[in-house]
């Protein structure tokens, strides 16, 4: 634990003045300490190797190492040292020792807060899972605790081997306390327990009791217990297999998305108390939570209407009062809703006589039949004797002396004449069994009880060392003293003739308790004494608050929390406003509030109080021997100077463009970076310089420090003019533009030249429409070449106007001569173009009609010839068909004709393919072109 405490580095508070504070790790301060093997990290082994190999070589050698080798070894040592420190920090953060319970209470509070924030997600998930389960809070809390232990790492621990129960370990869960154990551990535990019991049973022996009877050793009862709850299990119950929590699956696999050691199936165990429902959770550790099913039940008394409620809370109580009659039959119950037959006893009081009627007193209604302590003393029917029984109800019965009676020894039975007659002894030997249970009374029949047994019998003493004859009613005791040690293990029994059952030691322990003030008042015992049960008082630092703690814990116990103000003297100029506390006062966090002598302004210092600040300094001229040697640190409490004033004050820039808030320590006017923008003397341009110092910040005109205007004229030219003014920057107006412009005329045959100011004169803005129309006509004359237009009218004849813009004027007045013909084209006349548009064609005359009739006759003649040729062709095809498919008639006169036709057919067979090829070639060239 000491090594783990040394790995913790206390955080140091940073100051507001940026003073370099260098921290030193604990591993640097103790380079010779070996790394703890409990961590088991590679970083620790590497750090040990680095700390033991290279430094040892350097210290043993007299020759200094080269600077490169020294630098390399130092870097390696620093890297390993960081890994070791990180591992130790993690281990210290995760493990909390019992020895630090009192000293590190504040630190453990911070670690508990961090652990609580890390466990928030797990608790939220478990809360959502168990939000519908209500009833016994202990069962729900226990189930949530076991689930959280499984979902979080390093929480489930086997109590036998004290090792973490991992997700893939084979475990066994107790059926009573639901604690996890490694399967191999619980098997070894059970076998060892039963083996020890068998060995102890073999070592036991029988003994003689005080009566000399031999008591054999008890029978062997072999069983094993749970290591935590001590529930007994039979030898057959030793777990042999690894099963899930619900017992459905054997050897369940570790699934990353399931609860460890769970099969992932519904639990389905019968809930306790038995309600007929099964557990609906997935296979889970710990007890099953209360039944979440909803049932329709009435209240316990059955007077309220049925409502839907959780099965675990189905026994609910309404606000009505029970009206059942109590056992007294007079009063009603009046208690709040409860089960039938569970009415409390009637608490009303009344005067009731006892059973015999001798006394009367006020008792509770449920105690109406009470019994007094007096004897009944009622006379029997005989009138001679009275009842000797205690107060009772009913008749006393017949006189017992009137019944058949016997002599005192019981051997002779006779019936007396009356109850007043006395029965005497019979004179025979009594022979009743005496108190020893072995011998009979040797006296004659007598009244009263028999005496002690006086028979001499041999008896063994209690310790079993002596045997001698002794009177039967006496116990055999020898004079030997028992030398056995009592249960305390310090004192002998020293009891006369001990029977082996030595009583516990009756002496007072008297040892001084660990508190050092009191002595143990318990009986003598083995082992350490119980802690002192006395109380001691501890006080806070100021003594105003007192608390009680167990005696001996005064030094380790924390001082009580005191709400009184702290009485320690303040280290700064502020008074202490915190409450009483142990240790040094906390750092003052109030603002300084004193005049700032660093910037000498009127603002008070607003920084955190710096009258007493811990400053860590290192030795400047320190020369390390090796990487394990570090400079010494000196912590001093100093008063630091006031930091620069940071109060925001309005500051105007040099040129007066803007006002911004700047820290008081840096509140000098500076350039804002914008363009100066002051209007220069030319009246057109502005100062192009960046914000600069001027004489009058409020002025907007040129200052003596502004740059004079050196630009050319930027005045706008007339609309259409694209030439800039050649003069320097001046006031309007500019001189007329004398640039000559070359352009083509409207017809595009020649080029025309004109002056820019003639075509785009100045001052035409806002002129009258007549002046604008005159300007348009003048511009048109400038762009016309004066020659005849080369464009054509829509009719196709040339324009007769001079070079002009737009469409040609008067296209309908074209007088060009054109020829007009009739529809048949026989008659033609030459007329002007405008007349031809009015009458586009002439009427046909008689000559035209004669020509049309001649053409029609010619067309009819051609049609008749074509029909004759078609009929002849059809006749030939018909004859050819009949020749091929009809019956042939062998006629000599047609043989020559047939041969000619066959020759013609043979010629067609050879010509047809050639013609087809020629046609194909012609079509190919036609499509290609």
UniProtKB/TrEMBL annotation:
Cellular-component GO terms for this entry: nucleus
InterPro entries for the chain: NFX1_fam, Znf_NFX1, Znf_PHD-finger
Chain segments carrying region Disordered: 1-116
Residues in coiled coil: 848-882
PHD-type domain residues: 155-232
Compositionally skewed regions (Basic and acidic residues) per UniProt: 83-92
Species annotation: Anopheles merus
The UniProt record lists the keyword Membrane: yes
Polar residues compositional bias, start-end: 15-24
Keywords, in A-Z order: Coiled coil, Membrane, Metal-binding, Repeat, Transmembrane, Transmembrane helix, Zinc, Zinc-finger
Lineage summary: Eukaryota, Metazoa, Ecdysozoa, Arthropoda, Hexapoda
Superkingdom, natural source: Eukaryota
GO molecular function terms attached to this record: DNA-binding transcription factor activity, RNA polymerase II-specific; RNA polymerase II transcription regulatory region sequence-specific DNA binding; zinc ion binding
Protein name (Swiss-Prot/TrEMBL): PHD-type domain-containing protein
Compositional bias ranges of the Low complexity kind: 106-116
Pfam families the record matches: zf-NF-X1
């Amino acid at each position: 634990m000491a090594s783990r405490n040394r790995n913790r580095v206390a955080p140091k508070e940073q100051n507001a003045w940026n003073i370099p504070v260098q921290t030193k790790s604990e591993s640097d301060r103790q380079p010779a300490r070996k790394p703890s093997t409990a961590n088991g990290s590679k970083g620790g082994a590497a750090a040990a190797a680095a700390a033991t190999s290279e430094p040892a070589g350097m210290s043993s050698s007299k020759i200094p190492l080269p600077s490169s080798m020294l630098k390399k070894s130092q870097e390696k040592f620093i890297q390993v040292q960081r890994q070791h420190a990180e591992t130790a920090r993690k281990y210290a953060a995760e493990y909390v020792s019992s020895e630090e319970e009192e000293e590190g209470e504040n630190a453990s509070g911070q670690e508990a807060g961090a652990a609580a924030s890390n466990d928030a997600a797990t608790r939220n998930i478990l809360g959502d899972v168990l939000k519908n389960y209500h009833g016994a809070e202990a069962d729900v809390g226990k189930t949530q605790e076991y689930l959280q232990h499984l979902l979080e790492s390093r929480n489930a621990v086997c109590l036998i081997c004290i090792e973490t129960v991992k997700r893939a370990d084979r475990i066994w869960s107790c059926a009573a306390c639901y604690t996890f154990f490694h399967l191999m551990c619980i098997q070894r535990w059970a076998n060892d327990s039963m083996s020890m019991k068998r060995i102890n049973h073999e070592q036991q022996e029988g003994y003689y009791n005080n009566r000399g009877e031999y008591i054999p050793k008890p029978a062997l009862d072999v069983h094993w217990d749970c290591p935590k709850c001590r529930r007994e299990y039979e030898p057959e119950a030793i777990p042999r297999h690894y099963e899930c929590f619900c017992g459905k699956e054997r050897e369940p696999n570790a699934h990353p998305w399931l609860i460890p050691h769970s099969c992932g199936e519904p639990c389905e165990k019968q809930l306790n108390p038995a309600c007929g429902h099964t557990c609906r959770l997935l296979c889970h550790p710990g007890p099953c939570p209360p039944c979440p099913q909803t049932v329709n039940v009435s209240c316990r008394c059955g007077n309220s209407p049925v409502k839907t409620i959780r099965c675990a809370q189905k026994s609910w109580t309404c606000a009505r009062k029970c009206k059942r009659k109590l056992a007294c039959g007079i009063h009603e119950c009046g208690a709040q809703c409860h089960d039938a037959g569970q009415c409390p006893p009637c608490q009303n009081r009344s005067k009731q006589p006892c059973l015999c009627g001798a006394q009367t007193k006020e008792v509770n209604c449920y105690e109406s039949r009470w019994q007094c302590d007096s004897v009944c003393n009622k006379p029997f029917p005989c009138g001679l004797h009275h009842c000797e029984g205690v107060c009772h109800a009913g008749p006393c019965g017949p006189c017992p002396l009137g019944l058949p009676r016997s002599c005192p020894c019981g051997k002779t039975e006779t019936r007396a004449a009356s109850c007043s007659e006395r029965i005497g002894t019979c004179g025979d030997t009594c022979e009743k069994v005496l108190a020893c249970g072995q011998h009979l009374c040797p006296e004659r029949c007598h009244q009263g009880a028999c005496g002690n047994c006086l028979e001499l019998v041999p008896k063994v003493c209690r310790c079993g060392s002596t045997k001698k004859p002794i009177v039967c009613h006496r116990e055999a005791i020898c004079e030997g003293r028992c030398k056995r040690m009592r249960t305390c293990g310090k004192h002998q029994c020293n009891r006369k003739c001990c029977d082996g059952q030595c009583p516990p030691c009756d002496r007072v322990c008297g040892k001084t308790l660990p508190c050092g003030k009191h002595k143990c008042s318990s009986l003598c015992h083995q082992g350490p004494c119980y802690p002192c049960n006395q109380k001691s008082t501890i006080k806070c630092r100021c003594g105003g608050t007192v608390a009680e703690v167990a005696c001996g814990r005064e030094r380790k116990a924390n001082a009580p929390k005191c709400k009184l103000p702290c009485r320690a003297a303040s280290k700064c100029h502020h008074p202490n406003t915190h409450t009483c506390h142990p240790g040094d006062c906390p750092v003052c966090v109030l603002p300084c509030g004193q005049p700032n002598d660093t910037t000498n302004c009127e603002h008070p210092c607003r920084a955190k109080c710096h009258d007493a600040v811990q400053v860590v300094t290192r030795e400047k001229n320190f020369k390390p021997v090796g990487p394990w040697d570090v400079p010494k640190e000196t912590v001093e409490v100093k008063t630091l100077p006031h930091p620069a004033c940071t109060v925001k004050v309005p500051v105007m820039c040099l040129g007066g463009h803007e006002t911004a808030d700047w820290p008081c320590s840096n509140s000098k006017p500076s350039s804002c970076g914008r363009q100066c923008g002051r209007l220069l003397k030319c009246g057109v341009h502005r100062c192009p310089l960046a914000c600069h110092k001027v004489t009058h910040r409020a002025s907007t005109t040129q200052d003596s420090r502004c740059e004079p205007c050196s630009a050319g004229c930027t005045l706008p030219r007339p609309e259409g003019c694209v030439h800039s003014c050649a003069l320097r920057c001046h006031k309007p107006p500019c001189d007329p533009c004398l640039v000559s412009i070359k352009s083509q005329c409207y017809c595009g045959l020649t080029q025309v030249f004109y002056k820019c100011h003639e075509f785009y004169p100045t001052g035409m803005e806002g002129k009258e429409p007549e002046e604008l129309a005159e300007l348009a006509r003048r511009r048109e004359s400038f762009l016309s070449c004066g020659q005849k237009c080369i464009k054509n009218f829509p009719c196709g004849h040339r324009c007769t106007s001079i070079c002009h813009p737009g469409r040609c004027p008067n296209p309908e007045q074209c007088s060009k001569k054109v020829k007009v013909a009739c529809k048949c084209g026989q008659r033609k006349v030459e007329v002007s173009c405008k007349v031809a548009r009015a009458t586009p064609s002439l009427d046909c005359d008689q000559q035209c009609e004669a020509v049309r009739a001649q053409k029609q006759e010619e067309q009819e003649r051609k049609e008749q010839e074509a029909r004759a040729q078609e009929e002849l062709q059809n006749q030939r095809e018909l004859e050819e068909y009949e020749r091929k498919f009809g019956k042939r008639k062998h006629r000599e006169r047609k043989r020559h004709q047939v041969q000619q036709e066959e020759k013609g057919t043979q010629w067609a067979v050879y010509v047809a393919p050639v013609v087809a090829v020629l046609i194909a070639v012609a079509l190919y060239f036609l499509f290609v072109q």
